[in-house]
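Here is one chain, start to finish.
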Amino acid sequence: MPFVNAHLAMAYAAAADDASLSRLERGVATLLDDGAQTSGPVISLVCEAIAAYGRGQHETARERMGRAMSDLERLGGSHAQRDVFIDLAISAAVHAGARDEAECIARERSTRRASHLDADWLARLVAQGHGSRS
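Its structure:
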């Protein structure tokens, strides 16, 4: 269940339970290799991104989420639930020093639907001296 695995990855990363997180990553990768991962590679990418972010490897998290963004719907859940992963992508980009990318992700989501989350992200980016591009 991709959606459940992504949330387990978040819980393990938040608890700094690297052993469980690594075991989950291996299990998800095995399912993908066996052709049994209904969501395709997006769940592996999201789990790897969460693990990397939890370990402070923000560039790796940014790269993995960048590859996963176009397929997030395959995880299931509502838009609001997937917002957690979009926020991960934005935060990873900010921490990796890719503020233009972070702003682009926030702006792209805001064009699909109104979101206070994007207004907050964009306000923080502008306040940090990044500037705004329309």
